[in-house]
Amino acid sequence: MNVATPIPAKTAPEPKKVGHNSVGHTVCPHDCPSACALDIDLTADGRIGRVRGSADNTYTAGVICAKVARYSERIYHPGRLLVPMRRKGRKGEGDWQELSWEAALDEIADAFVRAEAKHGSEAVWPYFYAGTMGQVQRDSIERLRHAKKYSGFFGTICTNMAWTGYVMGTGALRGPDPREMAKSDCVVIWGTNAVSTQVNVMTHAVKARKERGAKIVVIDIYDNPTMKQADIALTVRPGTDAALACAVMHIAFRDGHADREYMAGHADDPAGLEKHLKTKTPEWASVITGLSADEIENFAKLVGTTKKTFFRLGYGFARQRNGAVAMHAALSIATVLGSWQYEGGGAFHNNGQIFRLDKSELMGTAYADPGIRQLDQSQIGRVLTGDADALRHGGPVTAMLIQNTNPMNVAPEQRLVRRGFMRDDLFVAVHEQFMTDTAEVADIVLPATMFLEHDDIYRAGGQQHILLGPKLTEPPRTVRTNLFVIEELARRLGVDHFPGFGLSEREHIDRILKASRWPGVDVLEREKWIDAQPDFETAHYLKGFGYPDGKFRFSPDWANGPSPDKPPKNVGPMGPISELPAFPDQVDVIEVADEEHPFRLATSPARSFLNSSFTETKSSYEREGRPEVMIEPSDAMRLGILDGDIVRLGNRRGEIRLHARLVAGARPGVLIAEGLWPNGKHLDGEGINVLTGADAVAPYGGAAFHDNKVWLRKDAA
Length: 717
Hints:
Blueprint: E1 22-27, E2 37-42, E3 48-53, H1 66-69, H2 71-75, E4 85-87, E5 96-98, H3 101-119, E6 124-128, H4 135-148, E7 152-154, H5 160-170, E8 186-190, H6 194-197, H7 199-212, E9 215-220, E10 232-235, H8 241-255, H9 260-266, H10 270-276, H11 282-289, H12 293-305, E11 309-313, H13 323-337, E12 346-348, H14 360-363, E13 374-376, H15 380-384, E14 399-403, H16 407-410, H17 414-421, E15 427-432, E16 444-447, E17 456-459, E18 465-469, H18 482-492, H19 505-515, H20 521-527, E19 529-531, H21 536-539, E20 599-602, H22 618-624, E21 628-631, H23 633-639, E22 646-651, E23 654-662, E24 670-672, E25 708-714
Parallel strand pairs: 6-14, 7-13, 8-9, 8-11, 9-10, 11-12, 14-15, 15-16, 20-24, 21-23
Antiparallel strand pairs: 1-2, 2-3, 4-5, 4-16, 17-18, 18-19, 20-25, 22-23, 22-25
Helix pairs in contact: 3-18, 4-18, 5-13, 8-11, 8-12, 8-13, 11-12
């Protein structure tokens, strides 16, 4: 079977009876590129049982991560929020009183009206993100924002550097069918700990190894579970991936592996690139990356002589201040080698463009005002503490509605974030499933449904399916959907007559699908998913890349080039854009270690958590143990640190205490803190993002979570 060819979705059978039980079909809603298709055992009394990956879905292929497999632990958790609550005491003291939904929504609407009356409509900031990837429950808040002309939300915390770097090269956010990894002779997993965070990547890569003898190469900054599965594991210093990519391309030109004929027809300036790379030798890259010259030579020879090389490019190596440049450099290897021409070859990051979902009615874009300011999600601490630049030189934010995110834990510059949320003049309503760090400092907390308790539609950036997530079980009677909250606030605020309001989830789904030229919701419910993968030539850019001239850009226009998440015109390019290179290159706009801060810190994902989700479930935190920092043993010995000691990490943003875990497998001078633990689980009640920065990353913004210089010492207490 040619897996690059779209595969028709199978018609879903009627729910299978298992005694008095049945099996329902849905999709994982969490912030992960895989968007796994799920089969859910449903008991006779309407509860969920076992959760499995769908074997019928050709990408999920019957495999899901352990945390989602244990979902019954989450949906029936005794600590789940069940009733609306109003804060009684001071913020963060945990003194609450129950109130009705009517009263809670009235108070939120009244607070928004007061904020608008005093400071204008931009004083209200609806704040949301990807706690659910369901299009209806996540994005309906934008419709309310546009209708009321509240401050805009520029979502920068996750994708900006990676998407921008990829699209600067290809001109489009799409790529080869990710199922083609199983058809590869070499799979390069670069900057993603797939065993822990995208298990389906490993499903297809391991299949290629078993069936074709394919080599798996993993490039990362420490010896994580994916590195342990590699045939070749390359451990680079954080922020040096572009140097490795440049050396690989240097060798390709030097040794005749560069496909000059392909580049002549498909790239903008291969001669300019070759000239630029003359000095980017393996020895040059070795000094920067920490790899030996032989390691670089061997990797370059493998991919240079293996036509069917699939570069699976993740988010991790792009979470640096030079992340867009690094993504573009790694991507460029596939063009130099001509890997795009082959099934099982090319470079893949995200398939966001292929779904073409028209959400204009859902999000109310027809009545959006381009003059309304757009506030940077990652700079919430600066916004709430009155930073003039972060506020776009406008008035203060004095009221917020927060859905699907937990900024008191996940946002950078945590001390600023906390200071902002503790303001007496700031009203905050949080719609949540658990009492998160953000909910703890809210004025009103509303209980939210989980994905099995409402209808929604999903698209999978890491694969190629549009999937339906139908309601399979009833929520607790006092819990409400995101859509319900938006509809009720719109009614109270007098904008419910605007187009898009008054529709149910299924109506929204049907309208989105039909406006996007896909079959409607009834067909999707029957089929379970739509395989949206383009034909082979389109996916592999053999008909031309996404630019008007069809050419890949070795030399992109960083100030004006395309990006799926480009800042609005009234913001423009961001960060030190003048320092970005004309061709792929190592550019040290990162936080380079110095005498005062001799260590580089990355805040990598934990296997049992997903951002701040699943931190509340017992099995997840028991598997993770406690907040720790991984230290290379030679660094620990030099500083007199033993395994289990309490250490301090700090920089100009603050300092925190963690337990030390001595782990071989990273470069000396590199520290790793896995997982976003709740702040209260840390020794001093402050989480790892005290140490991360919110300065805007070039060219279009973003948060550089893995790019922090810090000092480290044994705690004297």
